[in-house]
């Protein structure tokens, strides 16, 4: 069965410092991996995805993520955090081996960036 | 483009009442889906559709019905509401049924008393 784990409920970072939000996954085939962000009282917004190719994926708002097959991880990173990055972040996965676009989401990690 | 539109944004029901959450997209997306979001549990898939007239169950389908008579609309029906269905509901769509990122609506917050 497919699953996603986000081991941290909350990540606290000072503005200007690098940030990492962790995600590990489990799928039977090749993974399709996604990161989404949710601001208060809003729907989820797509940040980036990994389907195949380069293990380092660049996305919106300066975010990037690194796919690591041996560690089954897809951590979200940003070199310099902004207060406006404070939000709820979700990692999602689906099995790339056929099937439909049914994403499995992690529980979410709340990112708090302090001035 | 409006994207994915959900109505209503807020609703309070009594146990046993029925209601329909509406979802419409104007992007000619093939795939549409409903998720519920509960604290500490992320988003869980309720039902999904890969085209007009085609629907299937997701992870937590019990107590919910869906239909897809047009490409644009994908309503979610609660036949007899229960307190366990108190949640925030999100409709999401994607251009392809097999790939691509999901576009989400703003959500519908449902409280069942």
List keywords for this structure.
A: 115 residues; four-stranded antiparallel β-sheet; 12 strands; B: 113 residues; mainly beta; globular
Polypeptide structure, described:
The complex is a heterodimer of chains A (115) and B (113). Chain A is mainly beta and 115 residues long. Helices cover 0% and strands 52% of the residues of chain A. Chain A has strands at residues 3-5, 10-14, 19-21, 24-26, 31-38, 44-50, 56-58, 64-68, 73-78, 87-95, 104-105, 109-114. In chain A, strands 2, 5, 6, 10, 11 and 12 form a six-stranded mixed beta sheet that branches. Chain A has a four-stranded antiparallel beta sheet with strand order 3-9-8-7, with no helix packed on it. Chain A has a two-stranded antiparallel sheet with strand order 1-4. Chain B has 113 residues and is mostly beta strands. Helices cover 0% and strands 51% of the residues of chain B. Chain B is built from no helices and eleven strands. In chain B, the strands form two sheets. In chain B, strands 2, 4, 5, 6, 9, 10 and 11 form a seven-stranded mixed beta sheet that branches. The chains are: A mainly beta (115), B mainly beta (113). The interface between A and B is medium-sized, with 25 and 28 residues.
